[in-house]
Amino acid sequence: MTNNDESPAPLCILHLEDSDQDHLLVKRELSRLSDPMEIHRVETLESFAQALDERLFSVILADYKLAGFTALDAWQVVVNKKKRIPFILLSGAIGEAAAVSAIKAGISDYLPKADLSKLRHVIQRAIEVQRVIIAKERADAELLESEKRLAGFAEHLQATIEQERASIAREIHDDIGGSLAAIRFDLSWIERHTEDSATLSHVSAATEMLQHAVEASQRIMMNLRPAVLDQGLPAALQWLVNNFMKRTRIETIMRSPQQIDHLPKAVQLVAYRIAQEALTNIGKYAHCSKVKIDLSDAEGVLTLEIADNGQGVSDAELVKPASFGIRGMTERAKAIGGWIDISTILGAGMAITLTVPLSTPEKATKETLPDDPSHFV
């Protein structure tokens, strides 16, 4: 620390000591410091507290036992005033138990008066340790703030993605769906008004292709915006399961209440998306023969577990940089005040569990939530 003229700032020391001789010994020892130094002596708890209010000190040196109080009382004053100052206990023989108690209370260090030759080193070490602690706390606070900003940005981005999904689904329904319906009417008209076998053959082929297009558009709309959620989360998950079994031929068992009432739409959407992504990952990577899905809202907590008996994954695979699917699940769960637990054993399957307290999820009233169109681990 330097002044504007680049000269070293003086080391300000507060010395709590009621012995003139001991104070002089400390001053003599500290006079060997190469840096400028100021030492201010106080003898009472009142003058100690007043000095803390009047000046900013670099370090505190305190005798253990003084008239009517101890260094622990002085340390409590420092704590109460929320001062971040290295506090060194400089005393005679106080016993190991008392020294340990002082360190546990938060005092920086203890030095017997018989070892004053080490005082300069102890002071420098205490100040440096304090600087490191404060720097770490500042860095941790900045990191936490950065993580909050990134989480907020990710939530906004993913909510925007969900809104775009809904917009695209509406366009498919209104524009493409309307056009496909018009084509169906025209093909029906042609079929009714012609007897030419070649024409009828083309109409039949076109009708079949049209049916594929209709089914594809319905499937895309369902993936973009799951309207089936209007029937409730259990029904939506059952629809997912049925389609998963039809597509993969993997036996899937689902257990859930018939209906879960008063479940916020945001929670339903997140649970649906997590189940959708988990099933997609299972179909791609698990190499399993059986999947179990358990849904429960017991005791005010929504729990959704998706488990398979496949090959599982290693811990390293779960934390690898490319594990965007797992991270996406985690972020979506956080957005509604929930969390994701993952348990896996190589060769013995994997289970993903979403847990959401339903009583106090602060963000559960949002209609749109983070979502990511990618489905991969």
Topology of this protein?
Blueprint: E1 11-16, H1 20-30, E2 37-42, H2 45-54, E3 59-62, E4 65-66, E5 69-70, H3 71-80, E6 87-91, H4 96-105, E7 109-112, H5 119-192, H6 197-224, H7 233-248, E8 251-255, H8 265-286, E9 290-296, E10 301-308, H9 315-319, H10 324-335, E11 339-345, E12 349-357
Parallel strand pairs: 1-2, 1-3, 3-6, 6-7, 8-9
Antiparallel strand pairs: 4-5, 9-10, 10-12, 11-12
Helix pairs in contact: 2-3, 5-6, 7-8, 8-10
Nutshell version of this structure?
The protein has ten helices and twelve strands.
Radius of gyration: 35 Å
Give the overall shape, derived from the CA principal axes: elongated
Shape-level CATH architecture of the largest domain: 2-Layer Sandwich
Q: Overall mean pLDDT score? A: 84
In terms of structural class, how would the helical and strand content be classed? alpha/beta
Number of strands: 12
Q: Give the ordered list of helices and strands.
A: EHEHEEEHEHEHHHEHEEHHEE
- Estimate what percentage of residues fall within beta strands: 15-25%
Distance between the termini: 50 Å
Q: Say what the CATH topology of the largest domain is.
A: Heat Shock Protein 90
**Main sheet: strands, sense, barrel:** 5 strands, parallel
CATH class of the largest domain: Alpha Beta
How many domain modules?
2
Strand order of the largest sheet: 2-1-3-6-7
The residue fraction in helices comes out at: 40-55%
* CATH homologous superfamily descriptor of the largest domain: Histidine kinase-like ATPase, C-terminal domain
User: What is the helix tally?
Assistant: 10
Uncertain segments of ≥5 residues (pLDDT<50)?
Answer: 1-6, 361-377
